[in-house]
Each structure stands twice: as structure tokens, then as C-alpha cells.
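Table 4 source record.
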Amino acid sequence: MMKIFYSIAAFSLALAASSCSSEDAPKQPAAPTVKSNKLTEPFRFHKAIEVKPGLTFDVLSWGRGAEYVGAYMILRSDSARAAYKSINGELEGEITDVWNMDMDSDGNPELFIQAKGQDKDSYLKMYIYEFTESGSQQQLRFPDLTSSTRKSYRGKDSVFVKDGELFREFPIFEEADTAGVNPTGKKLLQYSLRGNNFNVKEIKDEDKKEADKDQKKK
């Protein structure tokens, strides 16, 4: 009988110790719930651009059943004034990037939507809007390539901003090289904005060399 008592007592002590150590052991935090930000049909692209605290532009694109046509929408959220507006338009190509600038330094932001098209003559598409403080907007027309440049253009554009101006660089090809296999050189175009109108300047090789020399002197 005494053996049974000692066995029960030992079992009770072991159980209590196990319970105590379980309570004292640090609890592992629950695995965080991961929410997917992947866009679902019919949406293809989304990017939020905060121009200043309280003023944000959400740019979206959507379209079902086609890869290179669709539509875009700009949602303007001015939480400081509790003012919300939207703009939409037809989209050629797929949006690759969106950014904000004030190229003409007039205090009104310009929203640049860059799209990549399929047809070689409209491979780069730019949708640009300028917004005023009051909330109105104006669409700005991005210049077309000249007829002579279009003959050697096969897309593959690189767009970048430097010193407040927009640059567009792309390879050029012989007119007979319709597939764009063997480039014969590159063309660099510089865009500036004055009075909501774009000015285009082609940067020649000699201009690049002079610019590089000036940069090295600095």
C-alpha cells in the first residue's frame, strides 16, 4: 500500500512540475497572417504616388481578354480637403511605370504614365496630366517621333530623368530591318516643358562628348 502511495505522489509531483514548466516557458508568437497584394482580374497595374502629405494619386489599369489594350484610371485623393476625383482613359499597351514631376517649375505636379505598346510605331506611349492646386487637370500631349525617325525606330526605349528634364533613348535600325535585329546606332532625345508644351531636342554624339567633358571639369 505504501508503494502505491509513493507512486501516486511521485506521479503528482512530476505532473505539477510539467505543468509549471509549461506555464513558465515563453509562448511562441502566432505566425503573422500574410495578405497578398497581387492584383486580381480585371486589374493589371497599381501604383500610389504621394505628391505631398495628404495628396495621393493612385494609378490603375485594367482590361479583360487582351494584353495590349485596356484602360487606365487616376484616383486623386486630397484628404486635407476631403476632395476625391477620378480620371480615366483608353490605354494602348501595358503600364510599366508612373512618376511625378514638375518639369516647368510652375508649382503644379505632372503625373507621367509610361506604357509599353506592341506596334513598333507606338511602342512607347506616354499619358501625362498636370494638376493644379484647386484640383483641376489638363492632359499634356507627348510629342510624336518625326517621320524620318519612325522609319528607323523599333521600340526598346529607355526613359530617364536628369536635372529636371526627360530623356528618351532607343536603338535605331535600317529601314529594311523591320524585325529590329541589327541596330546601327542609338538616338537620344531630350524633352523640356514650357507653358504645358513639350520641346524636343536631339542630343548628338558631339553634344554628349562636350557634356561629358564639362562634367569631368566639375
